[in-house]
Amino acid sequence: QAMCDSARATGTHTLLISSENLENLLFSPGIALEMTDFLRDHGYEEIIYVMYIRQTGEMFWSIYSELSRHTYVDPMNMLHLCLVNGYYAVPNYDRRTPIPPFWYFCFDHEKFVAEFEGRLTRGGASRCRLKVYDFDNRAFYPGEEMFRDIGLDPHRLALPPDTARNTRMPDDRVLDNYRRRFNADVPKTLREGFSGLVEKRHLAALERRSEISEMLDTRFGPGSRRLLARYGART
Question: How far is CA 168 from CA 30, 162, 163, 173, in A?
Fold first, then answer.
C-alpha cells in the first residue's frame, strides 16, 4: 500500500516491486494472485512478473554461500534434494520475518515456471503475464534488460559502491559461518569434534565444485534454455 501511494504521489508510470522473498512465488502462486488483485484495485492495468534464469551450477554455490548467513545446510544433502525435487527448500529460522516460513530455490525452471504460469490463469483469462530474462546476458549488471524494456537507459543508473554490493563470500568465511551456525546448538564439550565434521563436509563439496556444477547444469540446463527460447529471451 505504501509503495502504491508513493508511486501515485510522484506521478510515476511504472512501479517496480523487488524482494528476495519473491523467489517463493513460484511455489506460492496464491500470493502472486493476491498481489495482482491488489495492484489492479489500485489502478495498475498491466502487471508483469519478471524472472531471471541463472545457470543452475552457479546458482547452487551462490545459495550455499548465502544460506551460511542464516542457518546450517549440508552441501551434499542440498545437492541431492535439488536433483530429486528440482528445488531446494529450507526453513526460515529468522523469527523477525515469520513469512515465509520456508525459502524455496528453484532449479527445474522449465517445470515450475510452467506450473506457475498455469496457476496465474483463472477462468480462462490471464490476469497478468510473465517475462523471462537470461541472468548471464548482461554487459554491466543483472537487470539491465528489464530497465531497458521499461524505457530506462541502464547505463545511466548509478551502481552502488563495491562495499554495498551483495557479492559472494569467500570460501573460508562461508566455512566459518557454517561452523558457528552448527555449533550454536552443540554442547561446548563437543564443539571441536563437530567443527571438524562440518569442515570435512564443506571441503569435500568444494573439491567436487566443478563436477557438482556440471551435474546440475546437465540436468536442468536444457530445460532452462528451452524456457528462455519460449519467452524470446536474449541469451
Answer: 32, 12, 12, 10
- Rounded distance between C-alpha atoms, residue 51 and residue 139, angstroms: 18
**How far is the C-alpha of 107 from the C-alpha of 224, rounded, in Å?**
9
pLDDT tens-digit map of 25-42 = 899 888 888 888 899 888
Please spell the DSSP secondary structure of 156-220, one letter per residue: GSPPPPGGGS-PPPPHHHHHHHHHHHHHTTS-GGGHHHHHHHHHHHHHHHHHTHHHHHHHHHHHH
The band of 126, judged by pLDDT with boundaries at 50, 70 and 90, is low
Model pTM? 0.88
